[in-house]
Amino acid sequence: MSKREKSLTYEEAVQRLEAMIERIESGEAGLEQSLAHYEEGMKLIAHCRGILAGAEQKIAALTLTSRGIGGVAGDEAGGSTGGASGGAGGNPGADTDAETQNPDEVDGHLDDDDQESPF
After folding, report:
1. Exposed end of the chain (fewer CB within 10 Å): N or C?
2. CA-CA distance, 114 to 96, in Å (whole number)?
3. Alpha carbon 17 to chain centroid distance?
4. Angle between the 10-26 and 31-66 helix axes, to the nearest 10 degrees?
């Protein structure tokens, strides 16, 4: 990916993808050009996913900070933040797991609707 493509905003990358898809679907692009568009499109999709992942991390950090849970990343020595401490039937850290779990995951796995697609 060129420097210009790496500096594209999410919106600019999506616009380029949409334009490429339109050219391919309209038949405007021949086979070779369609393959080149597909290759470039896959790079743009990876770029967009990187931007989205960064945004998700920022949102998660802001959410935790606003709840007063913020702290040093990876610092688990402090234990849970008010959950059960392992007594009869207790689950240490259960309250924090629910707060940080991806809402698209069920039992640690992506729902069928959320399976990644190359398109």
Report:
1. C
2. 23
3. 18
4. 150
